[in-house]
């Protein structure tokens, strides 16, 4: 597809580039004497110059002849240059920042482009919300390439979202310049079952000659995976076992090896590369979801790169996996992903191939970051009010709203076996576990001894008043309650707690501030991160957001939870497209059979 | 770009493919127990089944569950299967057959698709001629993907052709479903000089999101090559030195390593691969021009594959270079080039990875060739009369027309130093050499002692009466004359001979029969291959054409020439886009400086 993400289309530049390459016109910029990571041939070319004009690469070699009056010369002796990193699958919203601030956070870490699926905001505000984020992103140098959310709601019939997307919406969005493909097709059951809705979305994307991105999250790599790949799904970031990633590559699907803030699949998945003597062109390295704290402390794709190398993937190969392999996945390798003539001058400067620290970042020939700091800024983005006022519960919640009635016939003092959602820190999967809860006053309550907590999901988009009830196991909380409007993928209001009063307080606090994350105990708000943009994001910078999130995570510890990124883990409780047991505003869902199930085990 | 070369677009097949992969619907065909060459991971997967439906691959694995009533099961135990071969750059016309018969000749050798540049017929009959060939090709299973001829005439101002092509024509052709890119941009001097004509053609192709194919034929891999690549030229088949092919790959340009009937560059170019530890994804193997004799005796890409392996390129890597690497070059790897789900079921069956003999060929899920024989046929294509009557000389030539006057002032008995075109068997390049010719009767004649022959090129498209005169060295002819209307790229009437009477006879013989190749001696026609389709092709099959060409080549031997494929070598004498010295209907051209030069050296 045509690339709309460079400063100028190539056809407006070819005469200039040809002249610059031959020294007939001075370059805008010349990088001198770098060790160039050539991702085409997988070599390092020492002492190499790059001449740039029109935001594109005109010449690679010994470029003194390209230097004229007005040429900016950047001495890169002793430094490594590589193509700007491309993240093949990310959700900006996970950073809790708007796209503009997200760009300021990731570009200094070497990221030139992202293939983003804004499906969090889309679940809340529909494609209109996506458009607003795209406007914010377009002000930045980051190439923010959208894959239109495909699964809104994530699993139709199992939850209520703020909006829904179908084949006709997909067809419409494919005409937008900023859209390069279809967002992760999480509805793999629909693809496998051959539903018109899922296949209609695939069809509209394929007809537009754009790329279908995937999400095949079960450890099955035979008939189902073949069916999924045969349906035109070009890549998938959901492998958790090395053999599944390997199977995807063998089937010609790009295996996007993930290392996000809360899901650290890469060390396991790297074995697909390091244990097999294979061509790795079908491997990508991606982040999926990155927390502000990770962005500030560890970085973005540069961090993933360092982890990949620690896992035994050779540095050049790992760089290919976040440059040319990604561009090829999206069939944009004619424009992006290598430092070769004609391509966008997106270039990351690294201190060395051992340390892999980003020292400078160039996009479209402009230096846009130095020493970890973005060099671009602009006025605060004016979000419209419908974006910043997205909490529509329709009522204030009372402690009584959090009562859970025991099943009919269960007498006080007896125990009821209930399904609980067992969460696993650092993994996207949950398990269904069964626990015996005591009946008191005809009700079931949180059981701190078993580490089992009441969990509610309230619809918050259209004042329907619907809610689902369940229990979660594994948080380690001893008092208080937590609530969040970051609750994948419908982003309804999720509340987990030890007692009804604190749960009500947590819920109402978020309803009042436009959404966010809150920790309360004993009638007091211990920590609050306001996320007024669709209840998902703030427009603060990464450092501030990281501090705020760090502070609230401390309050989790205060009430007894010690897991890393507890809000990110908690936020997946409603995600009905992943195994095994989840809770939405409509009830408990068995995500292996896609059936609603009762709280009580028969 | 959208693929228009499969039986059905993917979006019409996904539901069926998903069902077949899971055993919910029987496959049309199942291939059982093959050793599958996986070009994605560069492995062989032994004992692998492939299930096919809608002409596409539904499943790869153990496919018993895909077999139902009506499923054709092909036992491939002990056989190797690989993706159908793709030739990234060829000219059908070089086979001297129409596209229909060409398809019948190459498909049994494993060729599933060709990226062809019909610039021979375009030089004679313009884009209308191209359309006629496309119609013929479209009747066959071969995916005949056109790159629109970019350089008609090859070097504007230096020759007269039957038609011309400019940016507006390119723009128009880019709307045709059968066109995937721009044909070899031979006018690299125009690209380097930044002419509006050359860059206009590039721009129209890039705007249409299609691929620009290249032709950069000078041994320069620095400023000029960078300028050329920066102008958007994606691939180039003109390397003759390993270092040039390597430079192209390093610059992100696909190096199309050539092994054609008359130009055997591969053994030299293979060193770019075998002498360097590089990622070879930017290497392609291509044929460019293949003679009918080669097709019959040696094969097509299967032959190139065997040569590549003899040159030390590992078989799987060589197969990648004629499958996935080619599809990726043309950004069609989502549809072609691998045996993976969703792709077109274009599959070549090989006896082994050692012998690499093609035993069966499948395209779009249909077996289209077995044991070297095509299984498809159809009525003779009806070429319109303007295609079969393309000789427009305007007069009958007489022996006096072949007199070459000595330079003014040169006296009988003296010697004149003239420029001669020295031909090199098996190479596309010629050299400029200087020879002393005796002046007799105020004229210069062929000098058999020095192996130097009079050479004429007559315009034959529009009865302009123009012609060019020169001398060629190296044919070894002792008597008679040869003429041909296959005379790149203008395909004017080329005549080389030892005496004027035979030269006139040769020329007139072709004028009468609509074009072709002829050898005469002592007033007798010794051999004639009639090529009535634009003076370039016949509609006979490969075996017959091979026999005819073989027979006429024997007559070359009869008159003293022993070089292989002498007509193909001779046919490049007028090709003014290649170094060093060439002859067109307008005169002698120095193809290093692109200046007309005098016959006599100052």
Short description:
2 copies of one chain form a homodimer. The first copy, chain A, has 602 residues and is of the alpha/beta class.
Q: In words, what does this structure look like?
A:
The structure is a homodimer of 602-residue chains. The first copy, chain A, has 602 residues and is of the alpha/beta class. Helix content of chain A is 26%, strand content 27%. Chain A has a 10-stranded mixed sheet with strand order 18-21-20-19-23-22-25-24-26-27, sandwiched between helices. In chain A, strands 1, 2, 3, 4, 5, 14, 15, 16 and 17 form a 9-stranded mixed sheet that branches. Chain A has an 8-stranded parallel sheet with strand order 6-7-8-9-10-11-12-13. In chain A, strand 28 and strand 29 form a beta hairpin. The mean pLDDT of chain A is 96. Chains A and B meet through helix 1, strand 3, helix 6, helix 7 and helix 8 of A and helix 1, strand 3, helix 6, helix 7 and helix 8 of B.
């Amino acid at each position: 597809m045509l690339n709309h993400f460079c400063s100028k289309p190539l056809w407006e530049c070819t005469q200039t580039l040809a002249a610059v390459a031959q020294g007939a016109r001075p370059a805008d910029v010349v990088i001198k004497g770098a060790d160039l990571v050539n991702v085409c041939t997988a070599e390092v070319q020492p002492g190499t110059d790059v001449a740039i004009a029109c935001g594109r690469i005109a010449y690679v070699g010994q470029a003194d002849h390209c230097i004229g009056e007005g040429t900016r010369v950047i001495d890169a002796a002793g430094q490594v240059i590589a193509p700007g990193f491309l993240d093949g699958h990310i959700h900006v919203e996970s950073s809790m920042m708007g796209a503009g601030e997200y760009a300021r956070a990731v570009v200094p870490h070497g990221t030139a482009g992202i293939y983003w699926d804004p499906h969090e905001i889309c679940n809340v505000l529909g494609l209109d919300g996506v458009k607003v984020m795209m406007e914010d992103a377009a002000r930045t140098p980051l190439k923010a390439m959208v894959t239109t959310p495909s699964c809104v709601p994530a699993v139709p019939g199992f939850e209520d979202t703020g909006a829904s997307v179908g084949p006709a919406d997909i067809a419409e969005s494919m005409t937008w310049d900023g859209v390069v493909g279809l967002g992760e097709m999480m509805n793999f059951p629909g693809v496998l079952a051959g539903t018109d809705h899922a296949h209609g979305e695939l069809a509209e994307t394929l007809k537009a000659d754009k790329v279908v991105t995937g999400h095949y999250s079960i450890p099955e790599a035979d008939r189902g995976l073949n069916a999924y790949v045969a349906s035109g799904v070009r890549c998938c970031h959901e492998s958790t076992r090395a053999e599944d990633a390997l199977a995807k590559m063998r089937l010609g699907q790009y295996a996007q090896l993930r290392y996000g803030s809360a899901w650290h699949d890469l060390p396991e998945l790297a074995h697909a590369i390091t244990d097999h003597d294979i061509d790795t062109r079908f491997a990508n390295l991606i982040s999926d979801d990155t927390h502000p704290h990770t962005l500030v402390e560890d970085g973005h794709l540069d961090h993933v790169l360092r982890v990949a190398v620690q896992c035994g993937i050779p540095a050049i190969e790992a760089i290919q996996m976040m440059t040319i392999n990604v561009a090829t996945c999206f069939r944009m390798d004619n424009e992006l992903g290598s430092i070769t003539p004609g391509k966008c001058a997106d270039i990351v400067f690294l201190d060395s191939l051992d340390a892999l620290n980003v020292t400078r970042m160039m996009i479209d020939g402009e230096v846009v970051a130095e020493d970890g700091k973005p060099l671009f800024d602009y006025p605060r983005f004016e979000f419209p009010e419908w974006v910043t006022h997205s909490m529509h519960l329709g009522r204030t919640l009372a402690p009584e709203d959090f009562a859970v009635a025991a099943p009919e016939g269960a007498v006080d003092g007896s125990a009821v076996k209930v399904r609980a959602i067992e969460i696993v820190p650092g993994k996207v999967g949950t398990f269904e576990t069964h626990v015996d809860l005591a009946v008191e006053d005809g009700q079931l309550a949180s059981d701190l001894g078993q580490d089992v907590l009441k969990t509610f999901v309230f619809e918050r988009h259209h004042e329907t008043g619907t809610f689902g009830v369940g229990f979660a196991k594994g948080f380690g909380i001893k008092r208080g309650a937590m609530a969040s409007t970051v609750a994948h993928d419908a982003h309804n209001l999720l509340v987990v707690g030890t007692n009804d009063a604190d749960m009500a307080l947590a819920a109402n606090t978020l309803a009042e501030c436009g959404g966010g994350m809150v920790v309360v105990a004993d009638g007091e708000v211990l920590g609050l991160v306001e996320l007024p943009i669709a209840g998902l994001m703030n427009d603060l910078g990464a450092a501030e957001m990281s501090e705020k999130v760090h502070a609230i995570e401390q309050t989790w510890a205060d009430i007894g939870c010690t897991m890393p990124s507890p809000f990110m883990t908690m936020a997946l409780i409603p995600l009905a497209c992943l195994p095994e047991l989840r809770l939405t505003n409509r009830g408990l869902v068995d995500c292996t059979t896609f059936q609603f199930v009762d709280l009580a085990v028969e």
